[in-house]
Amino acid sequence: RNVVGISGSCAWFSNKSKHKVYRWMVGELSYHHFFHKYDKPLGGFVGLYAQTGEFEMMFSPRNRKGEFYAAGICSGYRWQVRDRLFIDSTRKEILSLRSAIPACSHFSLQT
After folding, report:
1. Which of 6, 21, 63, 84 is the most buried (most CB within 10 A)?
2. CA atoms of 66 and 53, how far apart (whole Å)
3. What is the DSSP letter of 16?
4. CA angle 75, 77, 83 (to 5 degrees)
5. Higher pLDDT, 101 or 67
6. Within a 13 Å sphere around the CA of 55, how many CA atoms are in the beta-carbon half?
7. Of 1, 76, 75, 74, which is closest to residue 40 (Cα–Cα)?
8. What is the largest CA-CA distance in the chain?
9. What is the C-alpha to C-alpha distance for residues 4 and 29, in angstroms, rounded to an integer?
10. Per-residue exposure over 22-42, b if at least 16 CB sit within 10 Å of its own CB, e if not
11. CA nearest to 45, candidates 53, 36, 55
12. Is 62 helix (H, G, I), strand (E, B) or coil?
């Protein structure tokens, strides 16, 4: 059984009096191949994923922000809790990562 998924997430934390801001927005496209032949996609799977997003971090008066693009392989397991409720446990390995971080000396990204 094969499944294609689209997901997104957004996180926001702000404490401007102490110059602490954290913002993260990411979108993901994924493909999972399940090993078991159930009516619903359950059990172990392997797959591929691609992500893109942007971030902003300010933990002092200096601000770090940029965009990123990543792709890789994933594996995991899916359990069914109720008729339309599932829990996924997924491990992702990054194969390619590109980032646009202007003048940033505290981050080290390998491409």
Report:
1. 21
2. 9
3. G
4. 140
5. 67
6. 15
7. 1
8. 55
9. 7
10. eeeebebebebebeeeeeebb
11. 36
12. coil
Taken as a whole, the chain contains a residue count of 111
Q: How far apart are CA 69 and CA 47, in angstroms?
A: 18
The CA angle 25-40-35, to the nearest 5 degrees, is: 85
CA dist., res. 109 & res. 101, Å (int): 10
pLDDT tens digits, 43-100: 899 999 999 998 887 766 667 788 888 889 999 998 888 888 888 888 888 887 776 5
Tokens of 14: 């702000």
Lowest mean pLDDT among 32-41, 63-72, 97-106: 97-106
- How high does pLDDT run on average in the chain? 79
* CA distance linking residue 47 with residue 28, whole number of Å: 13
Cα–Cα distance measured from residue 68 to residue 62, given in angstroms and rounded to the nearest whole number: 20
Per-position b or e across 77-107, b if 16+ CB within 10 A of its CB: ebeeeeeeeeeeeeebeeeeeeeeeeeeeee
